[in-house]
Amino acid sequence: MAVPPEAASQAAHSQGSGSAGDAHKPLTQREGVVIRFAGDSGDGMQLVGTQFTSESALAGNDIATVPDFPAEIRAPAGTLAGVSSFQVNISSSEIFTAGDEPNVLVAMNPAALKANIGDLSPNAVIIADRESFTDANLKRAGYDSNPLTDHSLDKFQVFEVDVTKLTTLALHGLGLTNRQVVRCRNMFVLGLISWLYQRPIEATVSWLESRFKKTPEVLEANVRALKAGYNYGETTELFASGYKVPPAKIAPGVYRNITGNSATALGFTVAAQKAGRPLFLGSYPITPASDILHELSGYKNYNVYTFQAEDEIAGVCSAIGAAFGGAIAITTTSGPGVNLKAEAIGLAIKVELPLVITDVQRAGPSTGMPTKPEQADLLMALFGRHGEAPLPVIAAATPADCFECAYEAVRLAVKYMTPVILLTDGSLANGAEPWLLPDPDKFEPIKVEFRTDPNGFMPYARDEETLARPWAVPGTPGLMHRVGGLTGEHLTGNVSYSPSNHEMMIRLRARKIAGIAREVKPLEIFGDEQGGDLVVLGWGSTFGPIREAVKQLRAKGQKVSHIHLRYLNPLPKDLGEKLRRFKKVMVAEMNLGQLLKLVRADYLIDAIGCNKIQGRPFKVSELVSRITRALED
Amino acid sequence: MATALTRKDFTSDQEVRWCPGCGDYAILAAVQKVMPEFGIPPEKCVFISGIGCSSRFPYYMNTYGFHTIHGRAPAFASGLKIARPDLDVWVVTGDGDGLSIGGNHLIHVLRRNVDLNILLFNNRIYGLTKGQYSPTSERGKVTKSTPVGSIDFPFNPITVALGAHATFVARSVDVEQKHLGEMLKRAHAHRGTSFLEILQNCNIFNDGAFNDLTDKAIKADHQLVLEHGKPLVFGKNRDRGIRLNGLRPEVVALGNGVTEKDLLVHDETNLALAFLLGNFEPPMPTPIGVFYCESRPAYDAEAARQIENVTAKMGKGDLHKLLRGGDTWTVN
After folding, report:
1. Do A515 and A567 touch, CB atoms closer than 8 A?
2. How much is the pLDDT for A239?
3. Does domain A534-632 have CATH number 3.30.390.30?
4. Which residue ranges form the domains of chain B, and what is each CATH number?
5. Coil, strand, or helix at residue A608?
6. Which tens digits make up the pLDDT trace of A101-113?
7. Residue A240: pLDDT band by 50, 70, 90 thresholds?
8. Contact indicator for A299, B316 with CB cutoff of 8 Å
9. Closest Cα partner for A617 from A67, A225, A226, A206?
10. Which regions of chain B are under pLDDT 70?
11. Most A CBs within 10 Å, among B18, B45, B307, B320, to test the A interface
């Protein structure tokens, strides 16, 4: 991450010199800051984080966010299990991650403090709601004494704020219930932090206006709480100065903030529109993939059909049925769902119909940690089917990259008449970053050409270049044919038990998938194009931390480079050769070494693993020290 | 259609490979006979099956066909029909495929009422895997996997379908060609999921399972042919009927003061009556015909309607607008 971890905290003592904005207090300039908002899952911390992110984006910063919420919808209030948090990294320079260690923690209760204190940077700022540190809440969080008074937080900058009382005072006279008042605490906090980092709050006010259109008294309360928090920051003696994080140098254009799941949904929708076909999603709700289903169900005027099936199997099977009928068919799930869909995916491979399976990976095995990310489904995606059943596998590197990857997955599926697995993960799904909006008029077209000519039609005749079979959909006169799971004869597809035919069909389909490598662009080496001491090879969501770590080491003069894979099958043709340019190859992934195994097996390269399986992304600092150690070995 | 369709138009060039004497031949013949009558060209028809003897069916129809995986045919068919409501989609399944491994998909397709025609061939045995008991096998059945008799209680396909709120539920018998043809026509005419159980003889592993319904000498005494609006009369001499005694049905002999006026009159729209008849087990006669038929919107039509309505309200999707959804900002 580009932000020195001491950022905000030390600034609390420095004399500010800035004078921009409406603030009357001095301003201190900062390159960036990592803020974590934490509270009970009912405290509205995700919302505060999201709005603060929007304000920061509008202020021109580079941003990256990561939410962290419990699987339980409403764990008992005040307990560690119920803590929900949202971390945002705002910066005046280019950033690749949501930050290793928060410089600022907003803790709405003792549990939120306890659950997050271990992650904070040295000398970090803690803003705590003093009133919530009651004996009962301290006990629920497992504190024997009050950390706000027992000096255990002396190495941090602690600001105690009576959030509940101040919010209540601000809303006095509105005739709200106690409960309604308490629900506005998050807006007070947002206002306060917005002042502290000099974010304009107009966007949040207009967002509140649209959200509470029908309940003017709730709108009034939220706006008042927001402004009260902002003004409190300005007038209280607590904070010596506000901070200014100047805009980052960002490529010009129109931006929006986007999560990986939203980007995935958009990529599929745009791909189907470009293909001129309806989009059919067959899916079963599963964390952390469900938001793709939610989002797509709102795109009906883009000819998007969403079918919430009775189970994971019906999700994929309905999609294959729709593909047989000529739709752009997709299914979305997470690891456990891919297991259940495996048999049907094998059928789609065998009958050769286009289909995209999205696996938003989560920590496994079994139910594991459903809201936490992992990359341990790679080998399942590649090999998790019976029989010889290869298919293309691609992985998205950042939240916005999910858009391109979803689009690419559809393009490959249709061009090669094959199911494709798209791998994302929980951190991409819910993490967000600014997205420079692409021009949909300039995308590579997705050509759908249904076979219509009955003359010489054979369902398993193949295109000479791609080896794809024709897509012949029901309703077309003269092309009636039957497909199925039984081994089919070359060309006709009729059931065949010929031994040589069986082997030929398996080899043909394998060649078809391997041939996709032809159109994979040469790999980009970030760093030393001609080779150097070490290259870190990654795939998927590890992109951000790897890139940042490599940047930091290169700034110190280390000959370290980064190669990141989008195509996991087939692997790019130039991968082996490019890896061999380096003295050492390190494969960093959130599993026990799955890509590592492939690299060693396919290229006989003695690569080193760098692995983490904690349901959390790599920290940049972790990678820096692992790479440093590898360089010294 | 320029020329009338014939049975030949629906017969594929593939050699039929069921065991000689299998009841499936009769069902195939009945289907190939009625399909031309619908006036729908073969290219608009799709047969989708799962796994099992019955599921070889699509190979023999000169339509589009999809032989899928075990138990999942209703899910494939649902996806196809939702994406392509213009097609005439049939599902062919069996007692193992539809009620065991695929039981979940069957009940859900029925409650959703996707406009499909489901033919469940019930031979009360696993044939393709060579003779294990099935979820419709009678209790105590001795098979390869139950050498001292099965101990699980069977499903009744009719009451399973009714319990899943199917909108069309009927039963016929493989060799009753005329009746079967009528039931196929009724099933096809119904909008929504039609569920037709076809009792089918497996002459290899469960021969004679339905003898009392197919043996010409005795079948009239065991079949209760359901006809909407008509009293429930059966027997070779049509001298017996079903009367309601309180809430319990009973068989009564006509005569001696008992007339047809005392008998239950079949009403396809009465769900309670359908359940009552669906639960008939020997020694009660076995009902065949339409148990239940109701009109309810079909899922595929509703899905299409939602897309039309939303598109009419919001306008056809514009990709530039789509990508700009939410807050945007401009960097100069």
Report:
1. no
2. 83
3. no
4. 7-230+266-300 (3.40.50.970), 232-265 (no CATH)
5. strand
6. 999 999 999 999 9
7. confident
8. no
9. A67
10. 1-2
11. B307
Residues of A in contact with B108 (CB under 8 A): 309-310, 314
For B82, residues 6+ apart whose C-beta sits below 8 A from its C-beta are A280, A305, A307, A318, A322, B114, B299, B300, B303
Fold of A7-244: Pyruvate-ferredoxin Oxidoreductase; domain 3 (3.40.920)
- 3-class secondary structure for A388-410? CCCCCEEECCCCCHHHHHHHHHH
Determine the Cα–Cα distance for residues B309 and A140; give it in Å rounded to an integer.
51
pLDDT band for A42, please (50, 70, 90 cuts). confident
| CATH 3.40.920.10 domain extents, chain A | 7-244
Strand ordering across the sheet containing B286-293: A482-484, B64-67, B45-49, B88-94, B117-122, B194-199, B168-173, B286-293, B223-225
Contact between B307 and A318 using a beta-carbon 8 Å cutoff:
no
Given an 8 Å threshold on Cβ–Cβ distance, is A482 in contact with B66? yes
**Residue A68, token pair as written in the block:** 């962290």
* C-alpha–C-alpha distance, residues A105 and B327, integer Å: 26
- Give residue A167's pLDDT band: very low, low, confident or very high (50, 70, 90): very high
Is pLDDT of A412 > 80?
yes
For A256-437, CATH number? 3.40.50.970
Query: Minimal CA–CA distance to A141: which of A105, A110, A116, A119?
Result: A110
Query: Would you state the structure tokens that stand for residue A189, as one six-digit string?
Result: 């906090």
Distances (CA, A) of A321 to A56, A392, B47, B66: 45, 20, 11, 9
pLDDT score at B2: 56
Q: How many beta carbons lie within 10 A of that of residue B321, not counting itself?
A: 10
Q: Are A517 and A570 in contact (CB under 8 A)?
A: yes
Cβ within 8 Å, pair A326-B83: yes
Helix (H) or strand (E) holding B219: helix B219-222
Do B80 and A479 count as a contact with CB atoms less than 8 A apart?
A: no
Residues in chain B with CB shorter than 8 Å from the CB of A327 are: 83-84
Whether the ω angle into residue B283 lies within 30 degrees of 0, i.e. cis, is yes
A252 touches chain B (CB under 8 A): yes
What's the CA gap between A238 and A241, in Å, rounded?
9
Average pLDDT for residues A346-353, to the nearest whole number? 98
Furthest-apart CA atoms within chain B: distance in Å: 99
The dihedral through the CA atoms of B83, B85, B90, B93 has a sign that is positive
Sequence-separated (6 or more) residues with CB below 8 Å from residue B112 = B78, B193, B299
Q: ∠A279-A285-A289 over CA atoms, to 5°?
A: 75
Preferred mutation among B17, B46, B323 to probe A, highest tally of A CBs within 10 A: B323
**A567-569 and A393-395 as β-strands: parallel, antiparallel, unpaired?**
antiparallel
**Peptide linkage before A288 cis (omega within 30 of 0):** yes
The 3-state DSSP class for residue A111 equals helix
Cβ–Cβ < 8 Å for A302, A273:
yes
What are the E-state strand segments in chain B? 45-49, 64-67, 88-94, 117-122, 168-173, 194-199, 223-225, 233-234, 240-245, 248-253, 286-293, 328-331
Q: What is the pLDDT of residue A224?
A: 96
**Residue appearing with tokens 């043809």:** B181
CATH 3.40.50.970 in chain A, residue ranges? 256-437
Helix, strand, or coil (residue A412): helix
Which chain A residues contact residue B80 at CB under 8 A? 321-322, 324-325, 474
